[in-house]
Amino acid sequence: MASRKTMLEEIINEINKKEKALDDSLKTDDFGTFSKLLEERFELLKQLEPFKTETSVKNIIENILKKDSERSKSIEEKMKKIKGDQFNVQVSKKAMKKGYLKVEESLSRHKINKSG
């Protein structure tokens, strides 16, 4: 029985480490690492199956669900910001091209007096 308890504690400890790493990767917008950590956490959660009746397991699952809900909202906000930034970049890119073409046309039509 002691080994079962030790095993459960080790799994919970690893899950807690993944949870902290998930928060850190989200803060730094490292979505590649975030995705990898979610997969690793899922594998750990599957190991909790034999312990599903334990109160500590139920509590950790509830905490994970709550944190994931908050993370989901944060990701949605970041996605909206990225979409807005992308739109602004495209508008700026078009404006630069149009502005550059007008300057280029103007230069080709008028001879520049380089002597001052």
Question: How would you characterize the overall build of this protein?
Answer:
This protein has helices spanning 2-27, 31-47, 55-109. It is mostly helical and 116 residues long. The protein has one domain (1-114). Helix 1 (2-27) runs antiparallel to helix 2 and helix 1 (2-27) packs parallel to helix 3. The model has no long low-confidence stretch (mean pLDDT 87). InterPro entries: TM0693-like_sf.
Compute the CA-based radius of gyration. Answer: 27 Å
Structural class: mainly alpha
What is the first-to-last residue Cα distance? 93 Å
Indicate the overall shape: rod-shaped
Assign a percent range to the helix content. over 70%
Number of helices: 3
Biggest sheet features: none
Output the helix-strand order.
HHH
Number of strands: 0
Mean of residue pLDDT? 87
Question: What number of structural domains do the residues give?
Answer: 1
Beta-strand residue fraction: under 5%
Low-confidence stretches at least 5 residues in length (pLDDT < 50)?
Answer: none
Attribute tags:
mainly alpha; 116 residues; 84% helix; 3 helices; TM0693-like_sf; rod-shaped
Which secondary structure elements does this structure contain, and how are they paired or packed?
Blueprint: H1 2-27, H2 31-47, H3 55-109
Helix pairs in contact: 1-2, 1-3
Q: What can be said about this structure in brief?
A:
This is Flagellar protein FliT. This protein is mainly alpha-helical.
